[in-house]
Design brief:
Elements: H1 2-14, E1 20-25, E2 30-38, E3 44-47, E4 56-59, E5 64-69, H2 76-86, E6 91-94, E7 99-102, E8 106-109, E9 112-115, H3 119-136
Antiparallel strand pairs: 1-2, 1-5, 2-3, 3-4, 6-7, 7-8, 8-9
Amino acid sequence: MAAVVTRKFGEEALQFLGKKVSVETSDQKIYSGTLAGIDERLDVVLDNVEGHGILKVIINGSFVKEVRLMEKPFDFKALAERLSRVFPGLVKIREDVGAIIVMDKIKVTQAGIEEGSGLAADRVKAIYDEFTREIRK
């Protein structure tokens, strides 16, 4: 049971990667920036730290009091459902790598199509573009 809980925590924490976060330390300092890395001890690496004149900082997990996500995470499940309407039975969510795999050859991340080409990839790109336009509204 503990392994399942630890794995689930890790999956949730990975959703913060590449997103804007706010980290509060045990001495009440607050750092805001892009989460570049995190481990099981809550050691965090922040890029583009705001307001401290710091480009990158590593914060020891023993001092981390709280990590707050400051932007909405990408909704892989909603995009996968939309892709499944066009490609039924051929869409898999790979949360461990932050991607959706279509037809075992097209890789879609929150940044767009990373692997794959051809007519199917063009159709996936069109669905992705429409989805991202809708969620920006």
